[in-house]
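Input structure tokens:
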């Protein structure tokens, strides 16, 4: 097991900081532990639904896992959050990812 993974797992046990959970999901993805990455993103979404960065990466992850319908749902939810936060850059990225996942 990677030292970085262990550190991130420990951090998520100690803190509710959404970035720690996001980083753990990213580490799982990097290690090709896709189900664990998705579970971590899903947990983060349940606890911090306004944490915008997770939506694009989770959508890309789901496309990678051949789950385009679920990817589109995540990306649409991210578009809603980006719109609410008036984050034009994230909105553009999420729309492009949705177009790609939908085709």
């Amino acid at each position: 097991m990677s030292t970085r993974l262990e550190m991130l797992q420990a951090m998520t046990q100690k803190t509710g900081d959404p970035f720690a959970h996001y980083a753990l999901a990213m580490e799982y993805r990097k290690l090709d532990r896709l189900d664990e990455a998705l579970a971590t993103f899903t947990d983060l979404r349940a606890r911090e639904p306004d944490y915008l960065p997770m939506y694009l990466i989770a959508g890309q992850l789901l496309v990678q896992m051949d789950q385009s319908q679920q990817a589109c749902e995540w990306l649409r939810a991210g578009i809603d959050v980006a719109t609410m936060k008036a984050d034009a850059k994230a909105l553009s990225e999420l729309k492009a990812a949705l177009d790609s996942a939908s085709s």
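The chain has one domain: 3-102. The helical segments are 3-14, 18-30, 34-47, 53-64, 68-85, 88-102.
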